[in-house]
Every structure is written in C-alpha cells, then in structure tokens.
Amino acid sequence: MCLIPLGLYLFLSCNTTADNKPPNVILIMADDMGAETLGSYGNTVNKTPNLDALAASGILFSNCVSQPLCTPSRVKIMTGRYNYRNYEHFGFLGSDQYTFGNLMQDAGYTTCIAGKWQLNGLAYKEEIKDWADETRPRQFGFEEYCLWQLTKGRNEGERYADPLIEQNGEVLPRNAEAYGPDIFSDFVIDFIERKKDEPFFVYYPMVLVHDPFVPTPDSKEWSEVEKRYENDTIYFGEMVEYTDKIVGKIMTKLRELGIEDETLVIFTGDNGTHPTIYSHTSQGIIQGAKGNTITAGTHVPLIASWGSRIKTPFAYEGLIEFSDFYPTLAALVGREVESDGKSFYKILEGDQDQLTRETAFVHYDPQWGKNVNKYRNQFVRNKEYKLYQDGSFYDLEKDVLETHKIPDDSLTTQEVQVKAQLEKEMARHPKWER
User: Fold this and answer.
1) What's the predicted TM-score (pTM) here?
2) From edge to edge, which strands make up the β-sheet containing 385-388?
C-alpha cells in the first residue's frame, strides 16, 4: 500500500492535471551558460532552436540572478538559502541540509538526478570524513542518480569523451566512444519512460558547457580520437548547440509519451559564461564573467515550459534569484517551507503582473582559487541599480561593467531613494567583512 503524504493530498485538490496526477517537474541547469549564449536572449551566432521554441511558447524570465560560481549556486538553488547560512566549502553540501530533492520525495514524487554532482567535498578529504559516501544523492532525496564527480575526482576521469560516471552505486565501464552528456540524457529519458505514470521530479545539472571546450559528437573533429580533449574556445558554440539538442531530445520524449502538458520544464544556468568566451549578441559583444559579481557573472537564462498549461506565452521582466526555486517547488506541491526565497509559482500559472521581489541579494564567498576569491562580496540590486556592502553604488543600465561608482553627492532624488531601499535590504543580512 502506498501512503501519500498530507502535503500531496492538499496539492491534489488544486494543482493536478486532467487525469488527477500531480504535474511532473524537470529542472535542467546548464553549467557556465550565461543568458547571452542563447538566441532567445539575443545571441546572433549560436543555434538554439529548441530552447528558443520553449521561450517562444512558454515564459522567458529576463532577469534571473544566480551566484557567480557553480557550487555556491548549487547550494543555493537546492536549499533555498543564502550562502552565509549553509555554504561551507567549494564542492560540498553538508549532509544536514534538506534539499528540493527531499522536498519532492516527501511530497510523493519519484526522483532522480543526472549530470554534475561535485557536492561530496572531494577537495577536502582530510576535513570531510564522508566524502566517499556514494549514498549522499539518496540522502538528499534522489532515488536514482547518474553523476560525474560523486566519489571520483576530475583527475581520475573527465565528463565528456570517455567519461567517468557513477550510476546508482556502480562505476560505469569506461568507453572511449562514449560521450558523457549522452549518457546523462539517456538516463533521464529512461527514467521518464519508466516513471511516466507517476509524478516524477528530475534534476539535471548538466556538465555542458563547462570547460574544457572540446568537440561534441556532432563536431567533425570527433572522428579523430586524439582531438576529443583538444581544448579550444572554437568548440564553445558547438557545445551550446549540443545542450540545445539534448533539451530537444527530452521535449520530444515528453511529446511521444503524451505528457508534455503534464510536465513543467525549467531551464536555467548556474552562473555566467567563462571569461574566455565572447558572445555576439544584438546588444553587442558580451564577455563572459564567471566568478565575477558583475552582471555577466550572474545573469543566467531562465525559461519555463508547461505545454498548453501556459496559454499565453510572455516575457517576465521582474527579478528572480536562485533562492526562489525551492519555495516555488514547495508551492507547486502544496507544502510550506522555510526559505530565503520567494515563490514564483503564480508566474508559472500565467500571472504576468506578479511581482515576487523588488531586490535580489547575493552573498558570495567562493572559498576556491584566488582568481575567484578576489571577487568575494555581498550585493543587493534591483533591475536598474546595484549596491555593494562597502557602499559602492552603480547604475546597471548605463554602466553594466561597473567601472564608475556613483558618488553620493551626484545622486538624483530618485537615486537617493533607491540607494536607501537597497541599504535597508543589505542591513537585513549579517555584516560580513571581506
């Protein structure tokens, strides 16, 4: 006998599909993909027809603010908490944390995760005693997993050609002809096919498009084995396009199974694009700023698709931050949770005028290499202005690279009011010395 948690009973009364089944959820998060890399956000070179189609038929969020780096974003999106509460080490999530995997599992969903893990603390083996615990994905609510960097470090095997992947307690046999993103996406497809008749939650933190920038199976260089790890930025666009291809593959499967209208698909990126990448867009050339707190380091795509449930496609101009995903999923399953975020579930239901937040807050302490640690900081921003903890104040529309602080004695009346609002929000958080 299968017992359904009370939270799911509450959910069934208002958020079910036509066959009385709760909606499925697929959350896809690309690695190091800023918004400027996609056609729907103005890119003029990369071909991303599948993601562009989802944006055109669903909801395109124009102002999603991530953390500037991978693990800080992963910890924040999975737990709905600001980094000063629970970010301990790079590449680590404490086993005492309750994630959206736990949330969805406790709400009666069958769950899986595929792609990049990097949360066991492999870089801190002396300090973190359970770094080799292969069950930690299940502790965080994921019944099944197919992951890179679970208990095996990058030095033992990479993520693309001939990948080193752990799946449900086993290390998959190495295969020089295999391509990691295909293994992960095939695992997701198989999970969807097997679980199509029950509510499922898939979290797919992709390994694409993180460096090394290497050929994909669609690249002509793939046929030469010795070039499969030839690191060159010329392959970046092909990696973006392969990401789009995988999204298309998943959407095709949902349509084949007749469950597209029953499945909420959310696509985002964990942080900005690598600084060696220059994207050609309708707004000009944008240099990636992964690791940096400027806009190009934190402006990531966010696209939501829900089949015919989204009757009128639209672009949402309000702010979304990474703490918001967790309470949004909680709202979807009818559960109340403690979180630093604000639910944007009503926007997913089609409320174009819903304003979830006026400001976004980022606490950023990467605890990693000096190239990113130099940017450690706190900031609060609205759509037009940004305030750092030291009082530095920027006009993001006129100075997106933040090269000129606005002196207090030159603030307009409106800017005085905006700065005061941002200062009030900053004061809500613990003062943090850089």
Assistant:
1) 0.95
2) 360-364, 377-381, 385-388, 393-395
